[in-house]
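Here is one chain, start to finish.
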Amino acid sequence: QVQLVESGGGLVQPGGSLRLSCAASISNFRGYHMAWYRQAPGKQRDLVARIDNRDTPDSSTTPIYADSVKGRFTISRDNTKNTVYLRMNSLKPEDTAVYYCNIYPPRMSFWGKGTLVTVSS
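Its structure:
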């Protein structure tokens, strides 16, 4: 049974930083493209950042980011710990959302509970 557990969210002031973590109980973690998604209140869930496995022909050699977070967010992964991270700098109120990790493209049965990030003064 696959389990993805997100952590690291919280309340932060505009301009602040957070690092999210996603611990994955999944066999062959290194074989998956991993991604962070977010869902703001009343909006659809969107892709934030993606980091590929680099082992398949369709892999991207560099992470891919939504335009709204480019230059501010950094996705990384540690295949020895089955963990993917999202470092978020220069946070803005519009970054407020529940953040989820999943494989890319996402699999419905893999969604976890997410972690809430609130950016507010």
